[in-house]
Specification:
Elements: E1 7-17, E2 20-31, E3 35-39, H1 46-54, E4 60-68, E5 71-72, H2 78-84, E6 86-89, E7 96-100, H3 101-109, H4 123-134, H5 139-142, E8 144-145, H6 151-165, E9 169-173, H7 181-197, E10 201-206, H8 211-214, E11 219-224, E12 227-232, H9 235-252
Parallel strand pairs: 3-10, 3-11, 6-9, 9-10
Antiparallel strand pairs: 1-2, 1-4, 4-5, 7-8, 11-12
The structure holds adenosine-5'-diphosphate and magnesium ion.
Length: 284
Amino acid sequence: MSEAMSELAVSGLYAAVDGHEILRGVGVTVRSGEVHALMGPNGSGKSTLSHVLMGRGDYDVTAGSVTLDGEELLGLPTWQRARVGLFLAMQYPTEVPGVGLEDFLAAATGENENGDEDGDGDLSVRITEEAARLGIPDEFLTRGVNVEFSGGEKKRNETLQLAVLRPKIAVLDEIDSGLDIDALRDISRRVEAMTHEDGLGVLAITHYARLLTELRPDRVHILMAGRIVASGGPELADQLEESGYDGLASELGVEELAVEGPVQRSTDEDPFGDPTAGALPFEV
Ligand code: ADP
Ligand code: MG
């Protein structure tokens, strides 16, 4: 690993949405080359953590700090956090009609058609190479980003962006959801290679242990009701697989698994929200 050592340090992080406290003192440190798994039941605050780390506006951070290589990220706009080296693969990737992947990534990297400002290779060549490596057909590169992509295609596409952008630390929010076994393996292999080759540090959020059979974590953390209630090695994921979240909670003496937020909004109001939440199966 040739890159300098990086460190994302989250400590004592509290955050609320519309006055409802969701994160209640989260602390975790991820360094270059490490894979940390953050597991927790539905509603425990996993996606909230990912959004707060990336600086989404509708969460109020009430205490704590988030630093990347010593630089405080809280208070910075999302694009600056990205420039400092943080990347988020969203649980529900947003569709960007009318914008193809190359323009999208050119905007993100600051490279334009005339130049290659950071001098690390032609963007379209890198995109094509990564697409081949991830099994993404060329036609997906010219369509609007994520538009009419299946769940699995969106996750491959998030991974492609990650590989092209080469952040220091990546937060992957349920990168395994909606994936078949082959896609899960392809994505995990690509992410794992980045940890070895580029020194990428990973915080992989998931509620299934199956991701961790492909993307082997160095550390496993369990989030319940907005707090990390246990941290350990990969054996903690095995213990969870055996006991389930309820069982593990009673083994740990934890009473509350999920936090109650305000009613989940649908994607009509919230472009980052769960597209299935709030959708009625009939017309009203
Ligand atoms: P997880 O990803 O672990 O399933 P989330 O972080 O998505 O959990 O949600 C935790 C709680 O916070 C839930 O009750 C959810 O409805 C609420 N919540 C999270 N983000 C928002 C938001 N932007 N608006 C309203 N409620 C939210
Ligand atoms: Mg989530």
